[in-house]
Structure formats: C-alpha cells, structure tokens
Amino acid sequence: MRSSKFSYVPLFLILAFVLLLGVIQTVRQSLFFSSRNRISIAVLAPHAFVLSYDKKTSIANVIYFNTSAQVTVPGGYGWYSLNSVPLLEEIEHKGFVIARHTFEELVGAPIDAVIMPTHSDIIDESSDPFIEWFLTKRRSFLAPLSRQYKISTRNLIDWYFFRSILATRKDKLVFVDGSTGLVQTKKNGMRYSAEKLDLTVKGFLYWTYPSSDGAVNVYTTQELYSAGTRIGRIIEGAGMKVLDVETVEHTPDTCILIGASQHKNTFSSLARYFGCSIKLNESDPYSRGIIDFYIDTKIGTIYR
User: Fold this and answer.
1) How far apart are CA 279 and CA 270, in angstroms?
2) How confident is the model over 96-108, as a mean pLDDT?
3) Fewer CB within 10 A of the terminal residue: the chain, N end or C end?
4) pLDDT, tens digit, for every residue of 247-303?
5) What percent of the chain has pLDDT over 90?
6) What pLDDT is recorded for position 41?
7) What whole-number distance in Å separates Cα of residue 101 and Cα of residue 126?
C-alpha cells in the first residue's frame, strides 16, 4: 500500500496569488500611480511645512510656517497654535484627521498625508533657520525602523515615495516663506490670515489635470454653508475654478460629484480625495464642463 504525500504546490500557488492581489491593490491605491501630477504632504515638527511634489518635473515646493502662530482648526474647534494640534489630536482620538484638515485650512489646498511626532504633545519650536534645519533633518522623518515620527498613510508604496521626495535634490527644491500670511492681533498674538496666505501659496500647490477647463458648483445646506466655502477654497487650491457655493434644502446621504465624461479624470480625483461617489452626466448637450459637488452632512460637519 503506497503512502500518500501531501503536495505543497497548490498551497504555494494560492499564497502567491493572494500576495499578487495585495500588490495590485496597493499599486491601485497609491497616490504616486494616480493620474494626478502633484502630491502634497504636511509635516508638523519643530518647524511646520507643506511639501508639494510635481511628479512630471520632480520639483518640490516647500512652504514653511511658524508653529507658535495660531491657525483655524476646522470642525468647530476655533483657533489653536499650530504646535498644539498634536495634543488636540490625542485628546479627541481622531488620528491624523484634525491635523490634515488644519493644514488644508491653512494653505487652502488638498493635503494627501501628514507626518507628526509619534508621541503627541505640544511641539517645541526650533530656533534654527528653516532651510538649514530642513536640509539637516528631512531624512529623519521617515527613517526605517525609527519611531520618532508617524505618517497617516498605510500604503507602503506611498511611504517609500514620500521618503524619497523628502530627500529631493537641492536644485529641485523651491522654498516659500509662509510668514507673509501672518497678522498681529491685540488679544491673541500672531495668527495666519487665509486671505493673505492665498496670495502667496496657492500657485505652488495646484494639481495638474488632463482636462483643465472644468469648473465646480458646490451645493450644501444653509447650516453647513461655512463647510461649503472651505471645501470650495480647497478645490480652488487644487487648481479648479469654483463658480458658486449654493444652498439647497436637502443634500444626498453621501457626498457626490456629478460631471460629464470628458472631465472624468478631474472629478474622479476630487471624489477620491474627499471620499465621495461619482456620477456621469451625459445630459449636457453643450459639454459646459461644469462639475456639481453635493456635500453630505458627514463631510460638512468635518469642514464646518
């Protein structure tokens, strides 16, 4: 009687197939394999900055800020000093959500990922000049096996590319001083003014679209109108023209973007960024290229 032997080949084939599916999914979800040319990452450390990288030109724009100055924290939190945002994150147990939306509000443009100290607390501001500090410290933010800093993305491909763009060659770096957006208040010290910052930073953060002639109408309820204006500012910071922010009596259960097929890549990028669904509208015979963005209660509460 022959003894039967167990074959490991089918098991290995199944494991290889599952691994392949995981790799494909990781690549599909990666920002660096998306149709967008620009990726932006915010870093909250002894100096705060937003690094916006153009995949086509390999140029990285670095906009830096005063961490002790006050910024608006969306979601109804009001004004906080930028270096206290990690402590607020810890108190509210919201991961990177508050920090990401705070930087969006600060620069008026999309932020794809956030890097912060692992142990959240009030961050001590560095006295070193920013450019000198950045060139010295930038490789430490995502150093392998280091637990000093954490990043909001779990995509390993994006982690690798974020680490690479932080190490961009010096001749490909453009530094922009965000202090031009500071205003002095009598009671609360230095604060960042959105209007003044927009004049300085917007052009350094624009996305590049295959079709750039589209425009957006934002629809929201009267109660969440402030969220609509904030989202409209972020869309403009991404390089899209916002025609109007209009109020309606009711909004969908989930946020949705509606547009014609010639702008599918454009509003698909916006839908992916805001976590919304999309709907193709082929009923526009004149192809005006207008994208309708309906904000739901969930996203409206986050940005109000």
Assistant:
1) 13
2) 92
3) N
4) 998 888 889 998 877 777 777 888 888 889 988 876 655 556 788 999 988 888 888
5) 34
6) 94
7) 23
* Ordered structural domains, the chain, with CATH: 35-204 (3.30.420.590), 215-303 (3.30.70.2390)
Per the structure block, which two tokens stand in for 116? 């912060």
Can you tell me the distance from the alpha carbon of 105 to that of 297, in angstroms, rounded to the nearest whole number?
19
Q: Which of 3-12, 87-96, 131-140, 203-212 has the highest mean pLDDT?
A: 131-140
Cα-Cα-Cα-Cα torsion 72, 76, 81, 87, nearest 10 degrees, comes to -140
Partner residues linked to 241 by β-bridges: 215
Full DSSP string of the chain? -PPP----HHHHHHHHHHHHHHHHHHHHH-GGGSS-SEEEEEEESSSEEEEEEETTT--EEEEEE-TTSEEEETTTTEEEEGGGHHHHHHHHT-TTHHHHHHHHHHHTS---EEEEESS-SPPPPP-S-HHHHHHHHGGGTT-TT--SEEES---HHHHHHHHHHHT--GGGEEEEEGGGGEEEETTTEEEE-HHHHHHHHGGGT----SS---EEEEEE-STTHHHHHHHHHHHHHTTPEEEEEEE-S---SS-EEEE-GGGHHHHHHHHHHHT-EEEE----TT---EEEEE--HHHHHHH-
C-alpha–C-alpha distance, residues 242 and 275, integer Å: 19
